[in-house]
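Example 3.2
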Amino acid sequence: MPTVIGISFKEAGKIYYFDPDGVQLKQGDTVIVNTSQGTEYGEVVLPAENMPEEEAVTPIKTIVRKATKEDIAQHEENKKKEKEAHKTTEQKIEKHGLEMKLVDVEYVFDGSKIIFYFSADGRVDFRDLVKDLAGTFKTRIELKQIGVRDEAKMIGGLGSCGRHLCCTTFLKNFEPVSVKAAKAQNLPLNPFKISGACGRLMCCLRYEYDEYKRFNKLAPKKGSRVKTVHGEGVVVDYNVPRESVVVEIAEGFRYDVPVSEVEAVKAPKASEAKSDNGK
């Protein structure tokens, strides 16, 4: 099994695997690697581990070196250039009258290319802008249109929970989220309450979705009659984190009962109901 280390090029970014080639590295170390984009500066987020052959994406590239003081200084200088390039590019977008929003600017470590990330409602003819940028920065220029979820990840912000967005802090990849996740968790289907900063359904709807689906299959439906140690009653609510249901007993008292301790009461058959009524 090949030995690999996990490297990320952005905070909460996707993890890529490289061969450490005998270099001793630990989590938090910075390295220089060659990628399809060019020479890149990244951070070790997963220490060396053996990867099964069937999971390895070959060929696995090796790291160039552990980042030196000069490399770190170059990385910091690139960050300063990115801020300056962002301001300059926004001015040029306005100059060319383009309906696009500049989201982020990224310098490839060795300065051989600058990548501009932007969002727009439709396709944008930015050929003249590319020529203008190439003449200004004297290097290769690449423009990438991104979606609203990627835009939120790059810009950051606070969610309705008051915490920093999940996508900017720890989510590596976006998973599909459907309205089924909100329905399963009995959440209000109000777009303003279940949408994130990007305007799409909140990523956190996925976190407990599978658990809610499992619980909903086990729990009796609301309104159904069940037997409990407290007596017979009606299911009026769920407590999914505790894997229990709230049962209202005939006397009007409510009890929180583990779902494993309730027994459904079968409705009497029509013939039995008539017999009980003496008909």
